[in-house]
TrEMBL record:
This is NAD(P)H-quinone oxidoreductase. It comes from Novosphingobium ginsenosidimutans. The lineage of its organism: Bacteria, Pseudomonadati, Pseudomonadota, Alphaproteobacteria, Sphingomonadales. Residues 10-323 form the Enoyl reductase (ER) domain. GO terms for molecular function: NADPH binding; oxidoreductase activity, acting on NAD(P)H. Keywords: NADP, Oxidoreductase. Coiled coil: none annotated. PANTHER family: OS02G0805600 PROTEIN (PTHR48106:SF8), QUINONE OXIDOREDUCTASE PIG3-RELATED (PTHR48106).
Length: 325
């Protein structure tokens, strides 16, 4: 089969077609004939050599796929054969065929195009776990989300609104702010044109937000804390602005802040299976009914994965980029 891989880390140009054997599903796995694969920021970081796959994972990039189940491993229900599914995978998505754990798959709803299905798992699993499980978000609260038009940001807007949150996002220009409002954000702040800390204070009448979903880290963390109410929760899911943050621990204690974060890829298969079950019960019905659909940016042929990465790194995209296999 044809896959997109790289021999050495570097820029988008290192992504090249390669020919490798079609994998065989093991116990609990299915083999999916990939129709589309999602492109995500961790793929870019892996290509740069800064995010190696966890032990046992495929070195081929790609963390989410959609397609047809064409082979089953042991202990997988025969009913899955021939099903259209989307799946969270630990690697291997940029390929004509990809292995997935059967219990990390979700059935593609009738009427949902496969490009949209492929755009869901990585952001849906990430946002659900970090906003609702680690962040304890509940109806009536306000959340601040950085990167409002990214894949994560657009998913956070949609899920936040579906579950009764007020959503404030930051974006890099007026056009993206307008797009975020169109998607459903209640407020969009152009962080290049104004201080988001002061804007959050203004929007919330000085009260602040209960929850921050942070993809920047670095010096944003201290600024985020200034946006939070007492007992606020801060969840970090990426470190695009740097891994180090300087914090005033007396402020954290006195205001009873909770700081947490997570990475999804290295978590155990059992954890991801339980997360998939919770999403299937609580969030997937919103997509199955058509109430929610991912925000799509652009589809590239698999062979043009380098161009897809270049678009993501340029920061011009709004929503999800996918590869058409």
């Amino acid at each position: 089969m044809t896959v997109i891989g790289f021999d050495a880390p570097g820029g988008p140009e290192v992504l090249q077609p390669q020919t490798v054997p079609v994998p065989t599903p093991g116990a609990g796995q299915v083999l999916v004939k990939v129709a589309y694969a999602g492109v995500n920021r961790p793929d870019v970081i892996q290509r740069r050599g800064l995010y190696p796959p966890p032990p046992g994972a495929s070195p081929i990039p790609g963390l989410e796929i959609a397609g047809e189940v064409v082979a089953l491993g042991a202990d997988v229900s025969d009913a899955m054969l021939g099903q259209q599914v989307c799946a969270l995978v630990a690697g291997g998505g940029y390929a004509e065929y990809c292995l997935a754990m059967a219990d990390h798959c979700l059935p593609v709803p009738a009427g949902m195009p496969l490009d949209q299905a492929a755009a869901l798992p990585e952001t849906l699993f990430t946002v659900w776990h970090n906003v609702f499980e680690r962040g304890w978000a509940k109806e009536g609260e306000t959340i601040l989300v950085h990167g409002g038009t990214s894949g994560i940001g657009t998913m956070a807007i949609m899920l936040g609104k579906a579950f009764g949150l007020t959503v404030i996002v930051t974006c890099g220009d007026a056009e993206k702010c307008a797009a975020a409002l169109e998607i459903g954000a209640d407020h969009a702040i152009d962080y290049k044109a104004s201080d988001f800390v002061e804007e959050v204070k203004r929007i919330t009448d000085g009260q602040g937000v209960e929850l921050v979903l942070d993809m920047v880290a670095g010096d944003y963390v201290a600024r985020n804390l200034r946006c939070m109410k007492e007992d606020g929760r801060h969840v970090t899911i990426a470190v695009q602005g740097g891994m180090q943050a300087e914090l005033n621990m007396a402020v954290i204690m006195s205001r009873r802040y909770t700081l947490t974060g997570s990475t999804l890829r290295p978590r155990s298969n059992q954890f991801k299976a339980l997360l998939a079950q919770e999403i299937a019960a609580n969030a997937w019905p919103l997509f199955a009914s058509g109430q929610l659909r991912p925000i799509m940016d652009q589809a590239f042929p698999l062979a043009d994965a380098a161009a897809a990465h270049a678009r993501m790194e340029a920061g011009a995209h709004i929503g999800k980029i996918v590869l058409r296999v």
